[in-house]
Fold:
Amino acid sequence: MRIITLNVNGLRSAERKGFAHWLAHTDPWDVVCVQEIRCADGDVPRALANPRRSHAAFQPAARRGYAGVALYSQAPARLIRGFGSAEFDAEGRYLQADFRMLSIVSLYLPSGSSGPHRQASKFRFLDAFLPQLARLARSGREVIVCGDWNIAHQPIDLTNWRSNQKNSGFLPEERAWLSRVLDEIGFVDVFRRLDPRPEQYTWWSNRGQAWKKNVGWRIDYQIATPGIASRARSASIYKARRFSDHAPLVVDYDFELA
Structure:
C-alpha cells in the first residue's frame, strides 16, 4: 500500500503546476491525502475531480478559498467529515476514510504564523483534537493520520531551530503537544522511524532561496498506530518537481488496502 500526502496550497494552483499529471504517471498509489485545497467541490479541476478512476472525497471549508482537505482512494466503507468541533469542522480540516480495520485521515492543522489571533486558534485546535486522537488510538482500528501538522517536532526537523524557538510551528507548547501524541497516546512518526537523517524537510518558505538552499521544515507527517506503523517499509520526500511550497511525502506499507 502506497500513501501520499501533500499540502497543495490550492488545488487549482497545484493542477496548473502539473500535480494531476504527476499523480496519473507516478508509481501506483492506494491513497492520496491532500490539504489546503482552497476550493469548493464545484471548483475542483476536472483532472483532479476523479483521478485514475479513484474515489474522490472533498471536505472544503465553509469560507470560500480557504483551507479544506481531500482524499483519493478506492471507495471506502465509510467517510467521516470532521471530528465534532463546530469551529474547526467548518474550516474543512479533517476527513476520515475507513477501510476494513484501517482508517486513514487527511488532516490540516491550523497555522499560527500570521498573528496572535491565529496562534490562539491553533492552540484551541490542539486542545480540541487531542481527545480525538486518543479516541482513534482506542478504537481498535489501525489508523494513519496524514497531513500538514504545522509543527516541527525536534531540532532535526528544521534548519534554523535556534532562531525559531519563539515562532509558531516550533513553540515549546506545540512540540510538547506532539510529544504527547507520540509518547502518551502511542502514535508513531512513520517517516522518522524509517529515516533518522537530518535535513529531510517537506516545506520551504517562498522567501529568499529557501528551496534552493534546502532551508526548510518537516511539518508534514504520516502519524500511525503502532501496528500499521510497523508495516511501513520505505518513506521518501518527492522533490523532483514542485507543486506547492510543500513536497509530497510518500510511504509504502506492507499492507493490502482491499
In short: The longest strand covers residues 102-108. Residues 116-138 form the longest helix (23 residues). The mean pLDDT is 96. The chain has one domain: 2-253.
